[in-house]
Automatic annotation (TrEMBL):
GO terms for molecular function: ATP binding; tryptophan-tRNA ligase activity. Its main location: cytoplasm. Its EC number is 6.1.1.2. This is Tryptophan--tRNA ligase, cytoplasmic. Keywords: Aminoacyl-tRNA synthetase, ATP-binding, Cytoplasm, Ligase, Nucleotide-binding, Protein biosynthesis. The keyword ATP-binding applies. It catalyses: tRNA(Trp) + L-tryptophan + ATP = L-tryptophyl-tRNA(Trp) + AMP + diphosphate + H(+). PANTHER family: TRYPTOPHAN--TRNA LIGASE, CYTOPLASMIC, TRYPTOPHANYL-TRNA SYNTHETASE. It is an enzyme of class 6 (ligase). One of its GO terms (biological process) is tryptophanyl-tRNA aminoacylation.
Length: 405
């Protein structure tokens, strides 16, 4: 398996990954603590299905953060998106849907970084005749921002920003991080070398900077003496950025900061591509992904033609052995998107035993198609109402702390 900020491939053993990265599995007692501070406060009816089903499975310092929040420390959420394609896909929804739940459940401010600078440095181009395409990434930021806003965040508590616009306020912290991290460290973590453009080597500090509340003097009304704790929800591929951040964090905050400046993290597993439960869904292969812009027909076609089946070759075998649910993409996708636990269990039992209403792949695919058509149509409806002017309002620097507890 390969898991890093630029590549996710192979069959991923998440327990091994946690060992390798040095993060921690979310224990039952941590889950209880989180439930007490969210459901227990009456802000959400139940734990998110991504927690109930172990999709968010790993963390760094979440236990310490929750203890301090319970004792009254201020906190905020930080997540982000690298706008590399016009449309986001279902995999990208995972951290955003979960972050929306966390925002409601903890009643806290949220900052969302759009790394248009990153995507230009890694994927952009320069041509002697036509110049470069830096500004294309800024317009992708606007497009992707509409998808993110459509996830239902609270405007009064959410600040969305493009690095190209907002970098000035973060710059003092970026410079501090540059000073604290060597090129050898960055090369070691991210695999850059002497042939990498210097922006790539500089970029990790820019993804690190929002982990410090003092990068948001207006938005979080914070300075270097603030005690804000930061929690970052993301898939585990982003962890390398924050390992680097945590190593130098103490240099950016005052000595009494509750976590020594370190951001806490909560990591998800990857939403798999259509072709099989390996690697992660990615934008580069359009037949491996369902995009938030796909039509109902696209969704139906892609699932019918491409969703890898764990069903057996013949009817007889299927009825004798049942499907292999672990490798069956349709079933795995339902675990992410079907809210009803009882229905999911029934489908798993029928399909896994080759009997009952959902005894075969066709039936399971049919139900998945219904679920996703509804989800994507609702998303598209919400997105269609979001104008450029509205996006600019979300991206305007303003305080988002007044309306949070
Ligand atoms: P990006 O745009 O690659 O991904 C955005 C978010 O989606 C997660 N993700 C997935 N989650 C589940 N299944 C998948 N198949 C899948 N593919 C992507 C990513 O982990 C990420 O959380 N450099 C970042 C942008 C960024 C960021 C951040 C992300 C800046 N600051 C802070 C998280 C937290 C990027 O290019 O993400």
């Amino acid at each position: 398996m390969v898991v890093n900020a630029f590549e996710v491939s192979g069959k991923i053993d998440y327990t091994k990954l946690v060992d390798k990265f040095g993060s921690n599995l979310i224990s039952d007692s941590l889950m209880d603590k989180l439930e007490a501070l969210t459901v227990g406060k009456g802000r959400v009816p139940r734990m998110h299905r991504f927690l109930r089903r172990g999709m968010f499975f790993s963390h760094r310092d979440l236990d310490t953060l929750l203890r301090q929040v319970e004792a009254g420390a201020p906190m905020y959420l930080y997540t982000g998106r690298g706008p590399s394609s016009q449309s986001m896909h279902l995999g990208h929804l995972i951290p955003f849907l979960f972050t929306k739940w966390l925002q409601d459940a903890l009643d806290v401010p949220l900052v969302i970084q759009m790394t248009d600078d990153e995507k230009f440095l890694f994927k952009g181009h320069y041509d002697d005749q036509t110049g470069d395409n830096l500004l294309d990434f800024q317009s992708l930021t606007m497009e992707n921002a509409r998808d993110i806003i459509a996830c239902g965040f609270d405007y009064n508590k959410t600040f969305l920003f493009s690095d190209l616009d907002y970098v000035g306020s973060m710059y003092p912290n970026i410079v501090r991080i540059w000073k604290a991290v060597t090129t050898n460290t960055v090369n070691g973590i991210f695999g850059f070398d002497g042939s990498s453009n210097i922006g790539k080597i500089a970029f990790p500090a820019i993804q690190a900077a929002p982990s410090f509340a003092s990068s948001f003097p207006v938005v979080l009304e914070a300075d270097r003496n603030s005690n804000h704790l930061c929690l970052i929800p993301c898939a585990i591929d982003q962890d390398p950025y924050f390992r680097m951040t945590r190593d130098v964090a103490h240099k950016l905050v005052h000595k009494q900061h509750g976590l020594g400046g370190k951001p806490a993290l909560i990591h998800s597993k990857f939403f798999p591509p259509l072709q099989g439960a390996e690697g992660k869904m990615s934008s580069s292969n359009t037949n491996s992904a369902i995009f938030l812009t796909d039509s109902p027909d696209d969704i139906e076609r892609k699932i019918k033609q491409h969703a890898f089946s764990g069903g057996r070759e013949t009817k007889k075998e299927q009825q004798e052995l049942g499907a292999d649910l672990e490798v069956d993409v349709s079933y795995q996708w339902m675990r992410f998107f079907l809210e009803d636990d009882d229905e999911l269990e029934k489908i798993g039992q029928d399909y896994g035993s080759g009997s009952g209403e959902y005894w075969n792949t066709g039936k399971v695919k049919g139900r998945l198609i219904e679920i996703l058509k509804e989800l994507v149509a609702e998303h598209q409806e919400r997105r269609a109402t979001i104008t450029d002017e509205e996006v600019r309002k979300w991206m305007a620097e303003r305080s988002i702390v007044k309306n949070s507890t």
